[in-house]
UniProtKB/TrEMBL annotation:
Protein name, per record: Dihydroorotase
EC identifiers of the protein: 3.5.2.3, 3.5.2.-
Similarity field: Belongs to the metallo-dependent hydrolases superfamily. DHOase family. Class I DHOase subfamily.
Domain spans labelled Amidohydrolase-related: 60-426
Functional summary from the UniProt entry: Catalyzes the reversible cyclization of carbamoyl aspartate to dihydroorotate.
GO cellular component: cytoplasm
NCBIfam families per record: PRK09060.1, pyrC_multi
Keywords: Hydrolase, Metal-binding
Cofactor: Zn(2+)
Length: 454
């Protein structure tokens, strides 16, 4: 019930006035009123407010949710930390992130998760949830761990990428899938094949061989195995950073159980050009591949066979990236550039703004069962990303907030830019500057997902 503020009094904490509001039902000019962190009206013409954001000429999107970031804290803060990572997020128009468990220590237990939540308190600029890593040491407890507040779900690395988290054995994988019911997020690369083929990279020392070492079958075999196990166990999956045309074809017949993430890196960069231009800066797992894969990802994305876009923000320092390949670590930053890069694709006509919003807001909310986020709806969290579709800007390393201090898109000119970020009614970014203080809170999930901890 609304008392001193709200519909009855037509006075809000925050009013976003005059923007083109993008909803799944369609777009149109509207004023949005926010009270106590929630949207209370999307038809708020004539309302007053403590704070008014003028959105004329701008598009108002539901807050962008990036469900794959590595913020490296604890243990690897020379690459990234929760404050800088989330600051980059809001500068890039992102309002919530899900953080990955390959930190040091790994996020495997209740204590590890609670320490991350405590470390994010009053330091996170956006809302945040944390994955628990699925492994042989905690497989039996995952049912209880995945239900903890602030947990985004379980993440499994089938192939080693960066850090020590690995579950490559079928017995362990099946135990993980049998213990719990939330959707399991999977890095699908086949560890045995990666080991077998590492000599390719070692022999050449040439990063252009990265997609040859970690080839199509490395990804496809792992995806096929885990999808088969999901069918046997009835467990829903989310396949992260799908990178091959072959996996896209396979996953088309598993839509009821298996959701799909693709990355702006895989949609934007292309082999071998990216390796020739960027060297090991473009090295990531699964690799950026040749044009035919990029085309297949775009086709799937346009045809509704992709559910989410995540950045896989995976920062390493320039010094680390400068080591000779393959000692150079895999991963590129991306949380801050996700939206500008994708808005540029919108401007180039590669996807509609509506489709982008489905992939960055409604998609993550549906796939992960996020409570009261993911669309501009009365009663939902007032998470809004304001963008100027006409702004022409250049992405530069100087703009990047990440501790690592670089982006693979340095020097890229884009059309479309996030100009304001609002999280639960708080304006935290305007015109490339953060404002106020870090308001981030743990993301909440639908109660139906929760199983009472024993
Ligand atoms: O390239 C990658 N780097 N892929 C991953 O899955 C992990 C990540 C990292 O943590 O650096």
């Amino acid at each position: 019930m609304l008392t001193s503020k709200g519909a009855a009094s037509r006075h809000a904490d925050l009013l976003v006035r005059g923007g083109t509001v993008v909803r799944l039902e369609g777009s149109g000019q509207a004023d949005i009123a926010c009270v106590d962190g929630r949207i209370v009206s999307i038809d708020a013409r004539g309302w007053s407010a403590d704070q008014v954001v003028d959105a004329h000429g701008l598009h108002v999107l539901p807050g962008v949710i990036d469900s794959q970031v590595h913020f490296r804290e604890p243990g690897l803060e020379h690459k990234e930390n929760l404050e800088a990572g989330t600051r980059g997020a809001v500068l890039g128009g992102v309002t919530a992130v899900f953080e990955m468990p390959n930190t040091s220590p790994l996020t495997l237990r209740r204590d590890d998760l609670e320490r991350k939540i405590a470390a994010a308190s009053r330091r996170a600029w956006c809302d945040i949830a944390f994955y628990i890593g699925g492994s042989s040491v905690n497989a039996g407890e995952l049912r209880y761990l995945e239900a903890l507040p602030g947990c985004a779900g379980i993440k499994v690395f089938m192939g080693s990428s960066f850090g020590d988290l690995l579950a490559d054995d079928d017995v362990v994988l099946r135990r993980i899938l049998e213990h719990g019911r939330r959707r399991v997020a999977v890095h699908a690369e086949d560890e045995a094949r990666l080991r077998e083929r590492r000599s390719i990279a070692e022999a050449s020392g040439d990063v252009r061989d990265h997609p040859r070492w970690r080839d199509v079958d490395s990804a496809l075999n792992a995806t096929r195995r885990i999808v088969g196990m999901a069918r046997e166990t009835g467990r829903p999956l989310h396949i992260l950073h799908v990178s091959t045309a072959e996996e896209i074809a396979l996953l088309a017949s598993h839509r009821s159980r298996v959701t799909v993430e693709v990355l702006p890196h895989h949609l934007t960069l292309c082999a071998p050009e990216c390796y020739e231009r960027l060297g090991t800066l473009a090295q990531m797992n699964p690799p950026v591949r040749e044009a035919r894969h990029r085309e297949a990802l775009w086709r799937a994305l346009r045809e509704g066979r992709v559910d989410t876009l995540g950045s896989d923000h995976a920062p390493h320092t320039l010094e680390e990236k400068g080591r000779p390949y393959p000692q150079s670590p895999s991963g590129m930053p991306g949380v801050q550039t996700l939206l500008p890069v994708m808005l540029d694709h919108v401007s180039e006509g590669r996807l509609s703004l509506q489709r982008l919003v489905e992939l960055t807001s409604a998609g993550p909310a549906r796939v992960f069962g996020i409570a009261e986020k993911g669309s501009i709806t009365v009663g939902y969290d007032a998470d809004l990303t304001l963008v100027d579709l006409k702004a022409r800007r250049e992405i530069t390393n100087r703009w990047i907030a990440s501790v690592c201090g670089w982006t693979p898109y340095d020097g890229m000119r884009v059309t479309g830019w996030p100009v304001a970020t609002i999280i639960r009614g708080c304006l935290v970014m305007r015109d490339d500057a953060v404002q106020g203080y870090p308001v981030g809170q743990p993301v909440r999930f639908d109660r139906a997902m929760a199983i009472t901890p024993a």
